[in-house]
């Protein structure tokens, strides 16, 4: 049986979180925990249990670069950054964690392609 991929998805837009979670879990063997607050993420125990973090860059409470720095310092888990505001300059201290950046609006297939590049094969629901 294929291993279910676990993703932590952080975006301050609740609709984006909801859509990503519903489509991911309905179509693929992906388990998604979504957060609209970077500060809530930092309170979460067991952040090491994820296969990938997907983090929006521009958020009100704390930007995604700062959240990524904090997560990368503690957990060497791959990070995919997203933004709707042009190119993302990745600070040197994040180079070992940030695997790619994706510009919004992105299609679901493009984000799945990026996830597969980072994690490997993701099984569709119903595949054996």
- Tell me the distance between the termini: 7 Å
Strands of the biggest beta sheet: in what spatial order?
2-1-3-4-5
Helix-strand makeup class: alpha/beta
Instruction: Give the CATH level 1 class.
Output: Alpha Beta
Model regions low in confidence, pLDDT < 50 over at least 5 residues? none
Q: Find the count of extended strands (DSSP E, 2+ residues).
A: 5
* H/I helix tally: 4
Strand content: 15-25%
Q: State the shape.
A: globular
The CATH architecture is: 3-Layer(aba) Sandwich
Mean pLDDT: 86
Secondary-structure element order, N to C:
EHEHEHEEH
Corresponding CATH superfamily: Response regulator
CATH third-tier fold name: Rossmann fold
In short:
With 128 residues, the protein is an alpha/beta fold.
Q: Could you explain how this protein is built, in words?
A:
It is a single chain. The chain is of the alpha/beta class. The protein has one domain: Rossmann fold (3-Layer(aba) Sandwich). Helices cover 34% and strands 22% of the residues. The protein contains 4 helices and 5 strands; from the N terminus they run E-H-E-H-E-H-E-E-H. The chain has helices at 14-27, 38-43, 64-74, 108-119; strands at residues 5-10, 30-35, 52-56, 79-83, 98-103. The protein has a 5-stranded parallel sheet, sandwiched between helices. The longest helix has 14 residues, at 14-27. The radius of gyration is 14 Å and the shape is globular. The model has no long low-confidence stretch (mean pLDDT 86).
């Amino acid at each position: 049986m294929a291993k279910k991929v676990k993703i932590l998805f952080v975006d301050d837009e609740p609709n984006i979180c909801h859509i990503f979670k519903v489509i991911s879990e309905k179509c693929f063997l992906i388990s998604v925990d979504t957060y609209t607050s970077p500060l809530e993420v930092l309170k979460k125990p067991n952040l090491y249990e994820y296969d990938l973090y997907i983090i929006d860059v521009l958020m009100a409470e704390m930007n995604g670069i700062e959240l990524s720095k904090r997560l990368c310092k503690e957990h060497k888990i791959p990070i995919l950054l997203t933004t709707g505001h042009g190119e993302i300059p990745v600070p040197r201290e994040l180079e070992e964690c940030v695997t790619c950046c994706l510009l919004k609006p992105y299609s679901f297939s493009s984000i799945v392609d990026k996830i597969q590049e980072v994690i490997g094969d993701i099984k569709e629901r119903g595949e054996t």
